[in-house]
Write a structure and sequence with these properties.
By secondary structure, the chain is α/β, with parallel strands linked by helices. β21, α40 and β22 (about 955-960) form a beta-alpha-beta unit.
Length: about 1450
């Protein structure tokens, strides 16, 4: 059997009474108890047994040695405290152990004397707290133990945080009346640490070191406290208290998380600034001309690494202008002060570049809270290992709101905010814009242009009209606006109606600067005069920057009384500052020497002071001297006492003898007393520093408030004050002094309730909340405080959502104007069933180059963890997905090839890790642009430098959470999550999905793993519905579905990023066509855009040279216009000359064609005439002499033969033969003629056919030439028209540019004149103020001079009297002194005579003694002369008698 089993058997045997509990079994019993597995069950067994409690009691009191207390007893008690709270069961056992107090007395005494080790100290602390918290019996004896200063001090100063926490709880219990009620850190506020108080207004905003290290849960109430009907009497106070504590706990969570990383207790990378080795140098209170709240100056041992190589001249410039230098110890950033690894305190940085630029640098820190100030200064004075660590928590976002909550005493509209119940009537406003509400109530479709004086017609639908009426008539109105329904438009209408038809003042608050600027632009567009609006805070865009406080300062004249108050405060501040610096110098320089201790105990502990008093003279009046013959120092006795010595030469002094008990104290007791006095001296100086610092800060706050009256006067003159919620808290005093009547909150669904609460003032009589509780909730750092965690704290539930869930009446806008119907169908079916689509959302063009306007790319590529950064509420590390990033990059490039500029796109992702990766990849082609919130998160994680910039085309990247309220033509979203465990993190939120799917106007592209989301452990129902809608619409693809716009039948599914380069390298398909790519145009447009942006940037940075550049640009535009006109004239002349030449050529060609046609016609006519003549001649010949004439005509050489008688027969025969031959020849000729005529006819026919063909060809050619010339002429005309149009357009653009330039010049001149007037007015005002101030000062000086003269006269008179009195006094003193000198001289002379007489007497005695001696010698020599001896003896006897008479006087004289 092993030992554990034997111990268990012995334990059970003792409880059953089988084995008696004796001295030998006591150690075994206690050991057996500690080996039991279940402490609760073990305690129950002991209490239930009739022998158990008595046995344990006897065992614990049997041995009270230090070894037992530090070992067995401590182990047993810690074991018992491991059990869950058993109430009276555990109390019964503990009471048996400590009563009678044998063990308890020894235990408490050992703790008081410092004999317990750390486990035993923890056991004692827990036991003491438990005994003090008993609900039965008398706890006064235990409270008395706790009240002992030595015990409470040991608890509070323990090195164990657990013991220290218990010490604070005990201190809290001691500060409460003894009522018998259990006070615990969980149930009530106060007592957990040195910054935990019942009244939340006493809590320091910055945490203390003990608070950071405290392991006890904070006191925060669940939100259901507002629903408790029994708590109505204290509901307002509880509401303020809990709102403050919840918000502050969210701030502390971020601080604690970062400190855990810094100290190595939590994994993560810390990229902040760490400074090793700093020393306390003094107090900083600002410069002479600009004082600030006080802080401490810490001098660094070494220089900053980034500044080691900088010259002295460049150091300050580096800190002020260089982006890396600006980040070094930012103003109001948080710094943790440590001694080694022990946290001392937290402080805020007051950035003074002049001190940081020193070598080595000097840092100014401002401390808060008395405990932190004392602890920090003591550690800085005593420790040599001080280091600073910069904490990147945005304290500036919390501190103003928390301070405003502490200063809030009254909650306006509390009946609606805190006490509204279902069925109550909604209160009406005291001032109503009846000119708008009455017509609108009678006819919701009334045109508001006439009522509000807008530039365009405005007709509302029913939901818009109802929302506008609610906002104008209810004390508290809630307007819900789903995505794209125009919430801001309704807000602008409300502001316009209130501005135009009432005298009330409106405070407009938004969460971000971007939303605030957009709303102000809407107010300006709707017609609210800019002079009636003012924007508080910085970081405004260019469109509303002129509405800032700097450009709207009103004339403000302070009265003499104001200046008197200011001067009085300045004098008081100067006095406190000087005293504070003196106290700090004393604290730094003081080594707490013996003289310092003597000075202190003279007033505080006179008994010891008397004991250490050193007499200056001894009893004879001689000065006391010590070693070396020097006078004894006043700290001689305390120095000897502190060193353990006796009083030395002073031991017989009366004051030393009377303080014998003090001088008998042992050495260790003396050292303890010295340390006590030194500690009290330090604490007294620290108390003085704290008091003076508090008084000085109060004076500075009053001065700030006094000088802020000018700002209040400016705000009083405005009708609309606009700021962020943080700005409203930071400037709460000024805003409340301006007394706004109405609070209008934009995007109220994403603003924390505490931010809205601090924006309200005592004069707030109406509040309008515009938002949507179905979109993303406000952001918080601590997931445990969220609605999603389900613990009931619900910090991220906005006031808007809380009121809606409470049943408070609200209006909902129903018509959306953003999304095309295919996209709006998602949110309609998932979230807003009553949502309708406005007309302008219909009939939009499809997205070019893709097969569908909505695309979900489904994939199975796994995600990656990004340990560099974490997302709130979604685990320790962020997520990224490389596949989705590469696909997004290619999709962006592809859409750019389709003609979609990056200004039409936005890339969204839920995770910061994915956002960082997207930014790195997209930088290859573009310049990714992030908003302020995302940039801040990435910079904090060290994943982005604030100096990152590029000249590439910008593309917007954002997380889903930070894109709420914005929109884009095309949204590309990467869901990122893809894992086998189907974990989707915070993507299970329906609000986040709602925001994601409602940002796109025309195109929506999603990439993700649908199976991960559909099968998610949380949120699968939501995503299941979404993907069902995706599938029903046919939007799900296994890749990116593209199509060629040139060849629509060509479609491809891109499943990987590499396929884009091979299948659509130029944004289309691979088929060759004649479509020209517009790369050059895009590059030219990109270049022009870059030049424009550069020009705008230069204009913003160089406002001083703007007028000159505009004038030069105007002259250039005019010259270009003139040159364009000349060029156009020359072009027109050339074109006219070309047309004239073409016309001349055409006429010449026509003339030639006509001449040729005429020649051809004449020739044809001549041929025709010749044939006709020949035919007529032949006919006439045949008719007169058919044969001869015919032959003769035909042959031309045969003359006619006359008929002559007497010619012979031969001749006749011959003639007949000739005649026959002639006839034959004539017939042949006729045949030949006929043949020739036929040939001529045929030739003529051929000629006519050829001519006809030639004419037809010529006509065809002419028609072709005419058509070509006509087309050419048309083209030339079109070109000329285009040139003219281009010229007209260029001329119009030039004219518009000139007009814009002129207008800009006019505006700039007007602006310059206005600024000059303002500056002149301001100068005049300052001059007047200075003159008045100077006059007042002169008057004051005159009065002071008169008073001084009067005082001088009085002083002179008094001085004269005093002089006379002084002269008389001096005379009397001189007479008295003369008399005294005479008296002293007489006494001195008498004394001298007495001395001389005495000396003579002494000489006489000495001589007589010599003579007597000589006589004795003679008597001895002459014994025989007896008579003579007798005579000498008689004389000697007489001499002796005389000496006896004289000697007493002589002795008395000396």
């Amino acid at each position: 059997m092993n030992r554990a089993a034997q111990l268990d058997k012995r334990f059970n045997d003792i409880l059953r009474g089988k084995v008696p509990a004796d001295a030998r079994s006591y150690p075994l019993l206690l050991e057996a108890i500690c080996t039991q597995q279940d402490p609760a069950a073990c305690i129950n067994k002991i209490v239930e047994s009739s022998h158990g409690s008595n046995a344990v009691q006897a065992a614990m009191r049997h041995n009270t040695s230090s070894q037992f207390l530090n070992d067995t007893a401590a182990k047993l008690l810690l074991y018992l405290f491991r059990a869950p709270d058993l109430g009276e069961v555990l109390d019964h056992l503990l009471t048996a152990i400590v009563d009678p107090p044998i063990f308890w007395s020894a235990f408490s005494q050992a703790f008081d004397q410092g004999k317990l080790n750390e486990p035993a100290q923890e056991a004692f602390a827990v036991l003491l707290l438990r005994l003090m918290s008993l609900t039965t019996g008398n706890t006064s004896s235990y409270r008395d133990v706790a009240k002992k200063p030595s015990i409470l001090t040991r608890l509070l100063n323990s090195s164990q945080q657990t013991v220290k926490d218990i010490g604070y709880r005990i201190e809290h219990i001691l500060s409460t009346p003894e009522s018998g009620v259990l006070v615990t850190a969980v149930g009530e506020p106060g007592g957990r640490h040195d910054n935990d108080f019942v009244d939340f207004r006493e809590i320091s905003i910055l945490p203390t070191a003990d608070e950071i290290l405290c392991q006890q849960p904070p006191f925060i109430r669940p939100s259901s406290v507002l629903e408790d009907p029994d708590g109505e009497e204290t509901r307002t106070a509880d509401y303020l208290d809990n709102t403050f504590r919840l918000l502050r706990e969210d701030m502390l969570y971020e601080i604690k998380e970062e400190l855990q990383t810094v100290l190595g207790r939590k994994k993560g990378r810390y990229r902040g600034l760490t400074i090793d080795g700093v020393t306390l140098e003094g107090v900083y209170s600002g410069t002479d001309d600009r004082k600030t709240r006080w802080g401490i100056k810490l001098k660094c041992r070494d220089d900053f690494k980034s500044m080691k190589d900088l010259s002295e001249k460049k150091r300050k410039s580096y800190l002020e202008k260089d982006p890396a230098g600006v980040r070094i110890l930012k103003h109001q950033s948080l710094v943790c002060i440590l001694s080694g690894n022990q946290i001392i305190s937290l402080a805020s940085v007051h950035r003074v570049e002049a001190l940081l630029a020193q070598k080595p640098p000097v840092i100014v820190l401002q401390l808060e809270g008395e405990a932190s100030i004392a602890k920090t200064l003591l550690q800085l004075q005593s420790s040599d290992t001080i280091r600073l660590i910069q904490i990147d928590t945005a304290i500036f976002a919390f501190e103003p709101v928390l301070k405003a909550l502490q200063n809030t005493q009254f909650i306006p509209l509390s009946e609606e905010l805190l006490f509204w119940k279902d069925g109550n009537l909604v209160g009406g406003v005291s001032v109503t814009a009846t000119q708008v509400t009455r017509p609108l109530a009678m006819n919701p479709s009334v045109n508001l242009q006439r009522l509000l004086g807008t530039s365009s017609s405005i007709v509302l639908d029913k939901s818009q009209a109802a929302s506008l009426l609610a906002g104008l008539t209810q004390r508290l109105s809630l307007i819900q606006g789903p995505p794209g329904t125009g919430k801001s438009f309704i807000g602008a209408l409300l502001a316009k109606a209130i501005h135009d038809h009432t005298e009330q003042k409106i405070l407009v608050v938004c969460y971000t600067n971007h939303a605030l600027d957009q709303f102000l632009e809407d107010l300006m567009k709707i017609g609210i005069p800019e002079t009636n609006m003012i924007r508080l805070g910085s970081r405004a865009n260019a469109q509303v920057a002129h509405l800032g406080i700097a450009g709207n300062k009103e004339r403000f004249i302070r009265s003499k009384a104001d200046w008197a108050i200011i001067n009085k405060l300045k004098r008081a501040s100067s006095v406190h500052c000087n005293n504070l610096e003196d106290a700090m110098d004393r604290f730094i320089a003081s080594k707490m020497g013996f003289k310092d201790v003597l000075t202190y105990i003279e007033m505080e502990d006179s008994k010891y002071f008397d004991a250490f008093h050193v007499p200056e003279y001894d009893d004879s009046g001689m000065t006391r001297v010590g070693k070396g013959g020097k006078a004894v120092s006043s700290d001689e006795l305390i120095s000897r006492w502190s060193g353990g010595s006796n009083a030395g030469q002073f031991k017989d002094e009366l004051n030393v003898r009377e303080a014998a008990d003090i001088w008998k104290m042992p050495a260790d007791a003396r050292q303890s007393m010295m340390e006590k006095w030194r500690s009290e001296i330090r604490n007294s100086i620290l108390e003085e520093i704290r008091t003076l610092g508090k008084s000085y800060n109060e004076c500075q706050d009053q001065l700030t408030c006094k000088f802020g009256e000018a700002t209040v006067a400016t705000l009083m003159g405005k009708r609309i004050i606009a700021c962020t919620t943080t700005g409203a808290a930071k400037l709460a005093k000024d805003i409340r002094a301006a007394k706004p009547d109405i609070l209008l909150v934009e995007e109220a669904g994403e603003i924390l309730e505490s931010h809205v609460l601090t924006a309200m003032g005592e004069n707030t009589s109406q509040m309008i909340l515009i938002g949507d509780h179905k979109q993303l909730r406000p952001k918080v750092n601590n997931y445990k405080l969220t609605v999603e965690k389900g613990d009931g704290f619900e910090l991220n539930r906005s006031l808007f959502e809380r009121l809606v869930l409470m049943g408070f009446p609200h209006q909902t806008l129903t018509a959306q104007h953003r999304m095309r119907p295919e996209i709006s169908a998602f949110i309609r079916k998932l979230t807003y069933p009553d949502l309708t689509d406005a007309a302008k959302t219909q009939g939009r063009d499809d997205i070019r180059g893709i097969q569908n306007n909505i695309i979900f790319i489904d994939h199975t590529h796994p995600e990656d963890n990004d340990p560099r950064i974490s997302d709130p509420g979604d685990g320790a590390s962020s997520k990224q997905n490389t596949y989705e990033v590469e696909m997004v990059w290619k999709i962006v490039r592809y859409l750019a090839q389709q003609g979609y500029g990056t200004d039409k796109l936005v890339v969204l992702t839920p995770y910061l890790g994915q956002l960082s990766t997207l930014r790195d990849v997209l930088k290859r082609d573009n310049d990714p642009v992030l908003n302020d919130l995302d940039s801040h998160d990435l910079i904090r994680a060290g994943l982005m430098s604030p100096t990152d910039n590029t000249s590439k085309k910008c593309i917007r990247l954002a997380t889903i959470d930070n894109y709420q309220g914005e929109e884009s033509d095309i949204v590309i979203a990467t869901l990122t999550r893809s894992n086998a465990s189907n974990d989707i993190g915070f993507m299970n939120s329906p609000e986040r999905l709602n925001v994601l799917i409602s940002r796109a106007r025309n195109g929506f592209i999603l990439i993700g793993n649908s199976q991960t989301f559909v099968n998610a452990r949380r949120g699968k129902e939501l995503w299941g519905k979404f993907f069902e809608l995706i599938k029903q619409g046919g939007y799900m693809y296994e890749g990116f579905p593209i199509k060629c716009e040139r060849h629509p039948d060509r479609t491809v599914l891109m499943k990987s990023a590499s396929e884009f380069d091979t299948l659509c390298p130029d944004g289309g398909c691979t088929e060759i066509c004649d479509t020209m790519l517009n790369c050059e145009a895009e590059r030219a447009e990109e270049k022009r855009q870059r030049e424009l942006e550069l020009k705008q940037k230069l204009e913003e940075e160089e406002m001083e040279r703007l007028i000159q550049r505009e004038q030069e640009q105007l002259e250039h535009d005019l010259r270009v216009a003139e040159l364009d006109a000349e060029l156009k004239a020359e072009t027109d002349a050339i074109a006219d000359a070309q047309v004239a030449r073409r016309r001349t050529n055409v006429l010449q060609q026509k003339t030639k064609d006509i001449e040729a046609a005429r020649a051809h016609a004449q020739k044809a006519a001549a041929n025709t005439q010749a044939h006709a003549d020949a035919s007529r001649f032949a006919s006439s010949s045949r008719s007169t002499n058919p044969t001869t004439s015919s032959i003769s005509y035909s042959q031309g050489s045969v003359p006619p033969i006359p008929d002559q008688p007497g010619i012979g027969d031969a001749f006749r025969r011959q003639m007949e033969a000739d005649k026959a031959a002639a006839l034959e020849a004539q017939r042949n000729a006729i045949e030949e003629v006929k043949r020739r005529d036929a040939e001529s006819s045929r030739a003529a026919a051929r000629q006519r056919a050829a001519e006809a063909a030639a004419r037809a060809l010529a006509e065809q050619n002419q028609r072709a030439r005419d058509q070509a010339k006509k087309e050419q002429l048309l083209r030339q005309c079109e070109t000329l028209w285009q040139q003219q149009e281009t010229d007209r357009r260029q001329e119009a653009e030039a004219k518009a540019a000139r007009e814009r330039a002129a207008a800009s010049l006019v505006r700039m001149r007007q602006e310059q004149e206005r600024k000059q007037r303002e500056e002149l007015a301001e100068q005049i005002q300052r001059a007047r103020e200075a003159e008045q101030e100077q006059l007042w000062h002169q008057q004051e000086a005159a009065r002071r001079r008169e008073a001084e003269m009067r005082a001088a006269r009085e002083r002179a008179a008094a001085s004269l009297v005093r002089m006379r009195q002084e002269e008389e006094r001096k005379k009397r003193e001189a007479l008295a002194e003369q008399t005294q000198r005479a008296r002293d001289q007489a006494e001195q002379e008498q004394l001298s005579r007495q001395h001389e007489t005495l000396w003579r007497q002494k000489e006489t005695v000495r001589r007589q003694e010599a003579e007597a001696k000589a006589a004795r010698e003679r008597a001895a020599a002459a014994h025989t002369q007896e008579q003579e001896r007798k005579k000498r003896e008689e004389e000697s006897t007489q001499g002796y008698q005389w000496i006896k008479q004289v000697l007493p006087g002589w002795l008395s004289f000396f």
